[in-house]
Amino acid sequence: MRTMLLAAAAALSISAPLAAQDNPMSDSAAASQVQQQGDISFQRVFGSPSLSGSTPRATKLSPDGRWLTVLRPREDEKERYDLWGYDRENGTWSMLVDSKKLSSGRELSEAEKMQRERARIGSLKGIVSYQWTPDGNAILVPLEGDLYLAQPGGDVRRLTDSETGELNPAISPGGGYLSYVADRHLMVGPVGGTAQEVTPDEANENVHWGEAEFVAQEELDRSTGYWWSPDDRRIAVERFDESRVGVVTRAAIGATGTKVFDQRYPAAGTPNAVVDLYVMNPDGSDKVKVDLGKNDDIYLARVNWAPDGKTLYVQRLDREQTKIDMLKVDPATGKSSVLFTEKAALPDYWVNLTSNYKWLKDGSLIWWSERSGYGQLYRLANGKWTQLTGKGRDADWVVTDLVGVDQDTGTVFFAGTKDDPLASQIYSVDYRKPGEPKRLTDPAFVNQASMDDKGRTLLITRSSDTQPPQTYLADQAGTELAWVEQNRLDADHPYAPYVASHELAKYGTLKTRDGATLHWKMITPEMKPGKRYPVFFSHYGGPHAQVVTKGWDGPLPQAIVDQGYIYFEIDNRGSANRGARFEQPIYRAMGGIEVSDQKQGAQFLKSLDYVDPDKIAIYGWSYGGYMTLKMLEADPGLYAAGISGAPVTKWELYDTAYTERYMGTPQDDAAAYAKADALADAGKIADPMLLIHGMADDNVVFENSTALIAALQQSQTQFDMMLYPGQTHGVGGPNISPQLWNTIFRFLKNNGVTPPE
After folding, report:
1. CB-facing half-sphere around the CA of 330: CA atoms within 13 A
2. Catalytic entry in 185, 493, 502, 729
3. Long-range CB contacts (< 8 A, 24+ apart) of 368-372?
4. CA–CA dist 38, 457 (Å, integer)
5. pTM of the model
6. Quick one: which H or E segment has residue 632?
7. What pairs with residue 317 in β-bridges?
8. Is 330 annotated as catalytic?
9. Mapping DSSP to helix (H, G, I), strand (E, B) and coil, where does residue 115 land?
């Protein structure tokens, strides 16, 4: 249920521009003259080319700096990506790997399908990742379960051809080896040669080597289970045994048949997989076990090598998720010691795991922590902590991402909300003599960034309410060097026919009764004086997510507004990027404070003279689907209708790592689970309700909805339902998505939630 941002990474500095282009939006007058060709239909929202324009993925520079490479969607099939490259020597773009030409049409293995679901890229086709070899002479390209080696501007050679597929392929840091996971084993071999199993054969089919266990992928943002040392001499390899994990018989119900999977799924309060860590040579010899402590009921959260390869650092997260122990490991013996412990910032709170840290060549550590109450950056050097960001009276903001570090100049680059909680910016600060951070980006945009390993070049992606995402390379001062994708809203842009009718978003705040500030966003249709309009009230409500920002929301909200509805969102307490005290109220109380905060949003809407108070419809997916149920149950009659997509209905059905982080275990706090349950009060739902679920969902398993259906039927509660055979948690596709959204609005119209005539 976690949310994830997939950021692209640049490699080295660049000085030559890709092409001579004007500044973005400099020709806004011309764009505004584009005539509207009609309202946006749901068919067009999900059609090709994307109305948001071409948004590249996985942008990288080759190690020698000659090539800039990106994954680019096809104009006629926006879900399919090909590998493109820009040759800086001759100034031309070319397709380096055509995914359609290499496509065999072979179905992905179940393991890779599940891994893609965990990474939220299950709907993408073609090439979804790639890696340059360290010498810059070739690119490793996974495609449909097999591996290819592409020479820039040259041949593409197939490396593997197997039915099982290859997970987590990688070129070792020194360039000497190709590694991947196949059939529960780690495979290693020379690049271009034959890979061999380097992990032991195990009779127990529940033992996996080199993979990340389910909850690590789904909830801990860790997708791999092996880590190369910088010098290629050793590999740290995870071994997990899920024998003690309970089996959930999951039926993937399709249009023409049903597949049944006995999935090892650790439900809240039940055993997790037993995870061990070993260090070995590339051929599997000289294997030593890492001492992770006597308690095996822990999470292997993060694994990193020191830059010199002499030390392995392991983050051990306790089952309760209230502390992280940073273990310092001798890779020759496996012996470990606790370097420091990061604890929850507040009582009755959890510790937020992060990837915002970096070990430096001088042995120090840049580390993200909420110990001040807000996520900020610190440096650990010679046993002493120094706070780098967020000091003083303006400390009530958060660092959202550690972007990069230039160790030659002692500069840290990061994203944060110092200037605006709704529009993150990129900043830099000297980690040797920290002072006031320097903002590097335009505050008129929401900005995200990544950097090369040396921290020399920024790759910045920005957007606003009126500008789809743009990506450019910048120097350390934030000065634009070259556009990767300018994505100008000119006459040739796919969104051009709708620019003139694009409705601007409005932003505001509400104060809760106990003084908390909630941010909201609203988009209104063209309204007639004296008329009142229905509201499409979209919500998520769960932790680790922020829905109200000033960035590009895509065409879907505009299509909803074009139907004559007001579009509204509000971030309740428990949501992300507002500090520990803003998140903490949901601890062991899910479905409580979020529901009352969203209710206050509804009451605010009812106070507006242009809102029809009897026509406020609520919509949410996943945690948002759960919220729809809890909101309808808590306040019958407050909302005109509710749409619940893929909802959790009983937290005992959801996984350990996510659920226990916020709720503890059912054994420890049965009362909290009972109160958070959405089944017991299902009979209180008195307003029209539409339930939607994918029938092959392996995240919020379909049993959540079948349990709800049974409870509603037992209480003689009427409801509507739309189920999607073969669809997983993210129901969608070029045909399915328009059908889904037309279903939602047909449901609203059938129940009288309609615009004024």
Report:
1. 6
2. 729
3. 368/399, 368/402, 369/342, 369/345, 370/345, 370/579, 370/580, 371/342, 371/345, 372/345
4. 42
5. 0.91
6. helix 623-634
7. 299, 324
8. no
9. helix
Domain 503-750 falls under CATH 2.60.120.10 = no
Strand partners, 447: 462
Distances (CA, A) of 687 to 430, 616, 649: 56, 11, 18
Torsion angles phi and psi, residue 317, rounded to 5: -105, 130
Parse the chain into domains and list their residue ranges.
25-49+361-448+462-497, 503-750
pLDDT in tens, 99-112: 998 887 777 777 77
Nearest 5°: phi and psi at 239?
Answer: -125, 125
Out of 539, 697, 698, 705, pick the active-site residue: 697
3-state secondary structure 577-612: CCCHHHHHHHCCCCCCHHHHHHHHHHHHHHCCCCEE
Catalytic site includes residue 596: no
> H-helix or E-strand containing 60?
strand 57-61
Asked about 22 being catalytic, the answer comes back as no
Helix (H, G, I), strand (E, B) or coil at 81: strand
Residues 108-129 pLDDT 10s: 777 777 777 777 777 788 999 9
Mean confidence (pLDDT) of the chain? 91
Helices 593-606/623-634 angle, 10° precision:
70
Q: How many CA atoms does the CB half-sphere of 576 hold within 13 Å?
A: 17
Three-state DSSP class for 672?
helix
E strand or H helix that includes residue 457: none
Catalytic residue among 622, 644, 705, 737: 622
Task: Please give the Cα distance from 618 to 567 (Å, whole number).
Answer: 10
Q: Which of 468, 384, 403, 407 is nearest to 441 (CA)?
A: 403
User: Cα(389)–Cα(371) distance, rounded to whole angstroms?
Assistant: 12
